Amino acid sequence: MILDQFKLNDRVALVTGASTGLGAAIAIALAQAGAHVTCHGNTRSPESTCDQIQGLGGVAHAITGDLSKQETARALVDQTLARFDRIDILINNAGTIRRSPAADYSDEDWDTVIEVNLSSVFRLSKLVGKHMIESGRGGKIVNIASLLSFQGGITVPAYAASKGGVAQLTKALANEWAQHGINVNAIAPGYMRTANTAALQADETRNRQILERIPAGRWGEPEDLAGAAVFLSSSASDYVNGHILVVDGGWLGR
Question: Does the annotation mark 191 as catalytic?
């Protein structure tokens, strides 16, 4: 049955940035499809997400760690393996954004954004990819890219650079690891109603401009990524490699 290909029964997923927003919605969706989920929180505990998953009859494990620190990636992987003994799905969702005109952008903000949004994605992917190769089972790695993987944005130079890097890293890892049964893909969300876009939503002019360009006529909700995340984490996407799946209400096609 075709629907069986979307089931994630007994697979283990590690979802970073799962305390709220996109990560929480993705973690819950994977659990609803049958996966056991390790939910990571950077500075905020993901217990609420775990409680929702457990309330639905799923299995969830909460961990925290600051992804701006190099050692955190290994700690997250080690803790997930200690709890579940395997990782079949990695969702690199955690991210941060710092806004400032490029001429005034601080080195500290640049370093933090690149570390969290790009370097930690590589470190986690490297560690989980090695585990997947050695296990012989393959697996799924899904990175969260952005419309700014394709566009430059305004006053977010580090964010745009990091998300452009995520798109290229996705392709590079897919090229190496497809032979091992590891599918590496990315989702590029459009303008989503999350804490990262609160400033844009509150700006009457920018909010109007954004909505005028989106054919769907609305901001995206975190739940709008659920189907894409389950698809790219399931056997239904076994022949999808190095793809950046845009979920944007039609923004890029306008």
Answer: no
